[in-house]
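Batch manifest, entry 17 of 40.
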Amino acid sequence: MRSLINRPAPRRVALETTLLAHGVPSADVPGLAADLAAEIRGAGATPCVIGVLRGTPIVGMSDAELAGFLADAAGGGVAKANTSNLGALIARGRTAATTVSATMELASRAGVRVFATGGLGGVHRGATLDVSSDLTAFTRFPVCVVASGAKAILDVPATREALEALGVPVVGFRAERFPAFYLRDGGAGVDASFDDVLSLASYVGEEIARTSRGVLVVQPVPPEHEISAPDWSRWLAAAEARASEARGRDVTPALLAALHEVSGGATLRANLALVRANARLAGRIAAVIEGDGGSR
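Output type: structure tokens
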């Protein structure tokens, strides 16, 4: 395995590359990358994009490296990496977008303790063994992940049960319920809720130090961007019909793309809004954990 490129910087917040390569339409990627970086910097922290560029895992991509990564993505040459295939993709010199689990692995090796994303993978509906490696990554890597719960296309209550079974602490920021990406209430609760960033960040720092494991912080989608339950059910059924041929790691990106189409862009707007909010909160947590107090 080639050397991990790690550019130390204060109060780093990890960002995954799967969101950029597979989560939103290519036309929205440059603006989203810039917006997430601005949200993190505005909170007093440093954005740290993580991915694999032609066989080299990078923690903290430069603008030029990110441009090269996105060029590969536009050409269809970017694989999707989780903890199971990350090493093989590196060994074969591939460019790969890191999912939550692979991003946690690389972030933890580089000492990055906070990570912002949209939603976790989890337990797929109707499947007995189709479970994302995102969940077990929390038991292995001491990283705080800020997300809007699990992706709503999953079996969200089962995903929440799996997190509990794995002993993963799930805490809400101004939320008593476990969200499901576009939905503020995914049908399950959280272990605790914190109303201010200082208390939340203090808990996160102490919990990671105590257990050397990950912590999931959930923040619901902003209320003005939440998708109504009837709209969601109708759009999901239509998207599943369109993406019925997708298999394995291609299922989630295919469904998300179909949802953006059938919803007239409403799910995309919700996706962008929640990940920006999560980046801002992650930046504030990182600022407190690293000791300057951050914004409240």
